[in-house]
Design goal:
With about 190 residues, the protein is mainly α. It has six helices and no strands.
Length: about 190
Amino acid sequence: MTHHRIWTAANVLSLIRIVLVGPIIFALTKNSSGGNRAAGVLVCAAAVTDFIDGAVARKFGEISEFGKIVDPLADKIAVAGVAGVLVLMGRIPAWYFLLAIGRDVLILSGGAYIRNVAGVTLQSTPAGKWAAGFTALCLFQAIVAPGAPAAITIFLLSLSSVMMIISFAVYAGRFFSLRKSNGLPR
């Protein structure tokens, strides 16, 4: 059951993820081992909120329209902010950042279109959650172990990229299916 409350435990967890972006970026800009450790801990905290917010919403019957929007938006804000700084620091390649941002812009645009035209708010998918988890792992490695062997970095970048592409395909399939089943304009 969907309700209209904003201040639920699940939504607060999603909002915390957004709030953590500032301290993560601040810690990264210290460009020190202590700053890296602090940023790593905060990325872990953000990842935990991402994995439990949906479970909390379902367990306590707090699934809301606001939550369906703020949960994936929090992921996108966190990835854009942290990955952007990591690109500027030379810790992740620009193509990875562009892939993540491009995917997120397309997903947000498609979701906004479906919401505005059909009045349906699309929820995150399991593939999207997996992509977010692998992206967090990739960013975590770039934060706490920037000098890791190239093979590890390439593996994590590749795994995260593949999950982003798979999750995008799932979202695109859902978008086109909803558009067709609702007779929505192109």
